[in-house]
Amino acid sequence: MNSKTILVSGGAGFIGANFVLYMLKKHPQYKIICVDALTYAGNLKTLSPVMENPNFSFFKLDITDRKGIFELFQSTKPDIVVNFAAESHVDRSIKDPEIFLKTNILGTQVLMDASREFQVERFHQISTDEVYGDLPLDKPELLFTEKTPIHTSSPYSASKAAADLLVLAYHRTFNLPVTISRCSNNYGPYHFPEKLIPLMIVNALADKALPVYGDGLNIRDWLYVEDHCLAVDLIIHHGVVGEVYNVGGNNEVSNIDIVKIILKELQKPESLIRYVKDRAGHDRRYAIDPTKIHNDLGFLPQTQFKDGIKKTIAWYLENRAWWEDILKGDYQNYFQEMYQEI
Ligand code: NAD
Ligand code: DAU
């Protein structure tokens, strides 16, 4: 089997780290180079099981650092680049948009410039279904296809959409061999406890209030993180250059139903639920039409939500040290500022 060198940016974050672990297991002959600035969301402990693996190397580096990135490409000569690095939390983008524009747009540009210079065979951009904006709750037949117009709601999604347009422009103008995947909400191990599912699990375990925005009826299309890794693996090996692939779980669930499932599983009372002020510009519903990736690449999610949520809760119960460490740091200040109402 051919060996490849894959540069993974953002590989110390939730999905990037799951992808690193997945790829080293699935393709033991591949070299994986992880580049991560280790922002608040990056965590080297997640990568500790592979730190000694001779086919894995880690570089603490900001993707906007042009000189550092070019030197790294020069020394490692990646065949494939997969860009997970991003500021990823919508709420933080509402409080302070600037870093989102810097990392998500300019960082992507730097990685693509290096990819051109060193002639990588594929640049894969990890995008999001949020670039399509939202769908109404009363038209369940509507789904996001790859042809749905870009129509963003938050500074986060606008920055991701800008990056997508830049990626497609680099393909058309410079012939950079790109692919893009637009995935729905991921959940699973190593998810930072500022996002809905891990936040509700850790708060419920501490008998703290569970903050539900607005009426709690907003819908997301949940995908177990390992299924996202499988989809990206298929796209970088078999996807067609210049194409966009939507990736979804066919698992639409409302926020309030998720919160109730978590409470039931942990045998905690629903009296912990607190309805709080809605998120500004809050998208109502996301739902992916996964026909293209299914027909073209044979992708089918392996984990149903009812099983994945149980596995995820079990992981948080078995890996308390991983998230308790996070809760001790700056997280306390973030939580107090963000959730003043509860
Ligand atoms: P995350 O916030 O958990 O991790 C992001 C990682 O990127 C962190 O390790 C962080 O240190 C690193 N990073 C941030 N800025 C950087 C910079 N300037 N240079 C280098 N590294 C930097 O995010 P995630 O949830 O794992 O999301 C990963 C990617 O997937 C993002 O591009 C996001 O837009 C996309 N995405 C996420 C979801 C989801 O449900 N979480 C769904 C679809 C798409
Ligand atoms: O759809 C893909 C996107 O999913 C990714 O691009 C983003 O990077 C990722 O963070 C995620 O965005 P969301 O905004 O959908 O995820 P989040 O977990 O922040 O919120 C999920 C839903 O839960 C959303 O409707 C807001 C709501 N929510 C969230 C938090 C943190 C609450 O009701 N209370 C909360 O405390």
Q: How many strand segments? A: 13
Number of domains: 1
Discrete helix count: 12
On the 0 to 100 scale, the average pLDDT is: 97
CATH architecture descriptor name? 3-Layer(aba) Sandwich
Strand content: 15-25%
The CATH class is identified as Alpha Beta
Task: Kindly report the CATH topology.
Answer: Rossmann fold
Radius of gyration equals 19 Å
Strand line-up of the largest beta sheet: 3-2-1-4-5-6-11
Helix content: 40-55%
- String of helices and strands: EHEEHEHHEHEEHEEEHEEHEHHHH
Bound molecules: nicotinamide-adenine-dinucleotide, 2'deoxy-thymidine-5'-diphospho-alpha-D-glucose
* Major sheet details: 7 strands, parallel
Structural class computed from helices and strand pairing: alpha/beta
Distance between the termini: 55 Å
Assembly form of the protein: single chain
| Shape estimate | globular
**The CATH superfamily title:** NAD(P)-binding Rossmann-like Domain
**Uncertain runs:** none
List descriptors.
single chain; globular; two-stranded parallel ribbon; 12 helices; 342 residues; Rossmann fold; alpha/beta; seven-stranded parallel beta sheet; binds 2'deoxy-thymidine-5'-diphospho-alpha-D-glucose; binds nicotinamide-adenine-dinucleotide
Describe the structure in your own words.
With 342 residues, this protein is of the alpha/beta class. The chain has one domain: 3-Layer(aba) Sandwich (Rossmann fold). Helices cover 42% and strands 16% of the residues. The chain contains 12 helices and 13 strands. The protein has helices at residues 14-26, 66-76, 90-95, 98-117, 155-174, 196-205, 225-238, 255-265, 291-297, 305-318, 320-328, 331-338; strands at residues 5-9, 31-36, 56-60, 80-83, 122-128, 178-183, 186-187, 210-213, 219-221, 223-224, 244-247, 252-254, 273-276. The chain has a 7-stranded parallel beta sheet with strand order 3-2-1-4-5-6-11, with helices on both faces. Strand 1, helix 1 (14-26) and strand 2 (31-36) form a beta-alpha-beta unit. Helix 1 crosses helix 7 (225-238), helix 2 packs parallel to helix 4 (98-117) and helix 6 (196-205) packs parallel to helix 8. The longest helix has 20 residues, at 98-117. The model has no long low-confidence stretch (mean pLDDT 97). It binds nicotinamide-adenine-dinucleotide and 2'deoxy-thymidine-5'-diphospho-alpha-D-glucose. 2'deoxy-thymidine-5'-diphospho-alpha-D-glucose (DAU) binds next to helix 6 and strand 8.
